[in-house]
Write a structure and sequence with these properties.
mainly alpha; 63% helix; single chain
């Protein structure tokens, strides 16, 4: 073998090693970047942050077939069921006519106000961000179940 062939072989081997290590370094950098990626993000009020699609889907899920709000779906989705299914903190159970009797005598407007302002252990709006219309739909559903 002559020296030129050995030199060419070593240069070729060196180039192959350098180019191969670059691919490994890129793969390692990608893996490191993936591991260091944030778990979540902060979205400030007024920014979209993808919530418009989620709100549109939620609105679709809480409306009945005729376009009215579905109190039964909202009852579960806005958190009312958490206390009213178990009776937590003295919450009258859904469909418990005896527990609802004195409340029903006050009328639905008084029940709406109780939810808007909070009553007993229940925080204002039941601790949710439900709109007035959603709260009214849930109260109407719960009243119908108790009658």
């Amino acid at each position: 073998m002559n020296v030129k062939q050995i030199a060419k072989g070593l240069v070729t081997l060196g180039i192959a090693m350098l180019s191969g290590s670059g691919a490994v370094a890129d793969a390692s950098r990608e893996a490191i970047a993936e591991r260091l990626a944030p778990v979540g993000s902060v979205c400030l009020q007024g920014q979209d942050c993808g919530t418009q699609a989620a709100q549109a889907e939620a609105a679709t899920n809480t409306e009945s077939g005729d376009g009215e709000l579905d109190g039964a779906s909202l009852y579960s989705s806005v958190g009312c069921a958490a206390c009213h299914d178990s009776g937590a903190a003295g919450a009258p159970g859904l469909g418990d006519t005896e527990a609802w009797a004195s409340r029903l005598e006050q009328g639905t407007e008084a029940l709406y106000q109780s939810v808007y302002e909070g009553k007993g252990a229940m925080p204002a709006r039941g601790g949710s961000s439900a709109s007035d219309e959603e709260i009214q739909a849930v109260v109407d559903y719960m009243v119908a179940e108790a009658e």
